[in-house]
């Protein structure tokens, strides 16, 4: 899965982590101080301000410094896609987070203007509203263009990864062909792995970058909050609330859904057995008789019903948590609103920033079903690679189907 696309995967990913940590330490400890603005611009100027352009240059320099030694010293057919392509995905994820920050910065003045007009605190001409809306449309246009181009690139990136896996497995087909469901693993599982990694990987990068970008914003906005319900006055109230709420929800749902990866893996096994018998029946009249097919399909049916039952428990917890999540921001701000210590603009900024940070912490909550599927696909492809390298098969391969 990884050796086919990345040069020396273990060493590569370790070096990525170390280099990223070093680059971030240099940036936050030294480089970011070169260009600072007393007040961050609102609108399209956010993306071309000196600090933004300086960060773009710094990011490109770090990527070039990291990629050059790998490409020269560990040549790999897919190095340009796996190294530079991955770096581009990180940058586009970062840029989309900056779009969210730009919209959040725009929301404060806009909603304060809206409150002033609706409460008749001052006379607000229509031109001021049109100017604010045009600012938003400019940001939205940039977001649309970058978003479309990013999705186009991601599709090609993921298909290159699938191509690399396909070539690797096909080249070793003689050693892999006797594994249960070998054809399905090469054709379908590689496709599903690449597609699932597309969604999970991009969302994970976005979640991490959102946290890095929005936690300081949320900390700054905490100055508007007088106290939290039940807790009262506390340092860093919004950050503390977001972390606690998200960790509780993530931990609870991960515990409820702990059995799902194993059941999903068995699903793929019984589906593969059923499909294989049907394929053999196309060429051999003595295969795929009704009794055999019925027995194989009953295994499929039984395992799916187990999966549905387990998802009932998981979805009950997940839906309750997500519904409560809709109003948690209002609950936290109730004492501040009742005290009249906040206006509509900062209120909207807090809600948006709190939602972004909370959503990043809830990555596992919103992605758990997909993670379950990815784990099962990963285990099936690991079975391939274990056979190829003479390693012990993954534990899920030896898991017996449950007795009816």
Q: Give the percentage of residues in beta strands.
A: under 5%
Helix content: over 70%
The low-confidence parts are: none
- What does the main sheet amount to? none
Mean pLDDT: 81
| Contiguous helical run count | 12
How many β-strand stretches? 0
Could you state the order of secondary-structure elements as H and E?
HHHHHHHHHHHH
Content-based structural category: mainly alpha
Whole-angstrom Rg: 26 Å
Shape: globular
Distance between the termini: 34 Å
Topology at a glance:
Layout (H helix, E strand, L loop, with lengths): L8 H21 L15 H4 L1 H24 L5 H40 L7 H46 L1 H4 L5 H40 L15 H20 L3 H24 L6 H49 L5 H18 L1 H27 L15
Can you walk me through this structure?
The protein is mainly alpha-helical. It has twelve helices and no strands. The chain is globular and about 85 Å long. The mean pLDDT is 81.
Name the descriptors.
single chain, mainly alpha, 12 helices, globular
Tell me briefly what this model is:
78% of the residues lie in helices and 0% in strands. The protein is mostly helical and 404 residues long.
């Amino acid at each position: 899965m990884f050796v086919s696309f990345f040069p020396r995967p273990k060493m590569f990913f370790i070096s990525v982590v170390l280099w990223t940590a070093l680059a971030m330490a240099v940036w936050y400890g030294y480089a970011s101080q070169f260009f600072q603005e007393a007040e961050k611009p609102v609108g399209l100027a956010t993306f071309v301000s000196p600090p933004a352009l300086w960060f773009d240059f710094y990011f490109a320099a770090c990527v070039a410094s990291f990629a050059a030694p790998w490409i020269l010293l560990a040549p790999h057919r897919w190095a340009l896609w796996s190294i530079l392509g991955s770096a581009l995905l990180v940058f586009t994820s970062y840029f989309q987070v900056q779009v969210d920050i730009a919209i959040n910065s725009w929301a404060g003045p806009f909603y304060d203007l809206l409150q002033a007009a609706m409460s008749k605190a001052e006379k607000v001409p229509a031109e001021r509203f049109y100017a604010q809306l045009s600012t938003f449309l400019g940001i939205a246009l940039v977001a649309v263009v970058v978003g479309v181009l990013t999705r186009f690139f991601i599709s090609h990136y993921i298909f290159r990864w699938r191509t690399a896996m396909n070539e690797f497995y096909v080249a070793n087909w003689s050693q892999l062909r006797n594994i249960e469901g070998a054809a399905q693993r090469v054709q379908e599982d590689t496709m599903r792995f690449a597609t699932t990694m597309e969604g999970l990987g991009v969302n994970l990068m976005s979640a991490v970058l959102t946290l890095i970008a929005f936690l300081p914003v949320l900390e700054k906005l905490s100055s508007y909050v007088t106290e939290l319900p039940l807790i009262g006055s506390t340092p860093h109230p919004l950050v503390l609330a977001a972390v606690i709420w998200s960790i509780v929800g993530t931990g609870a749902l991960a515990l409820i859904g702990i059995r799902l990866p194993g059941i999903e893996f068995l699903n793929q096994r019984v589906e593969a057995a059923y499909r294989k018998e049907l394929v053999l029946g196309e060429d051999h009249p003595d295969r795929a008789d009704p009794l055999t097919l019925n027995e194989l399909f009953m295994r499929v049916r039984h395992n799916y019903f187990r999966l549905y039952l387990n998802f009932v428990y998981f979805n009950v917890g997940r839906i309750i948590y997500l519904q409560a999540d809709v109003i948690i921001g209002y609950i936290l701000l109730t004492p501040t609103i009742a005290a009249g210590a906040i206006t509509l603009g900062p209120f909207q900024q807090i809600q948006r920033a709190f939602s972004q940070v909370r959503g990043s912490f809830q990555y596992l909550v919103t992605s758990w079903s997909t993670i379950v599927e990815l784990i099962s696909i990963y285990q099936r492809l690991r079975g391939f690679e274990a056979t190829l390298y003479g390693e012990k098969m993954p534990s899920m391969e030896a898991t017996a189907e449950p007795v009816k």
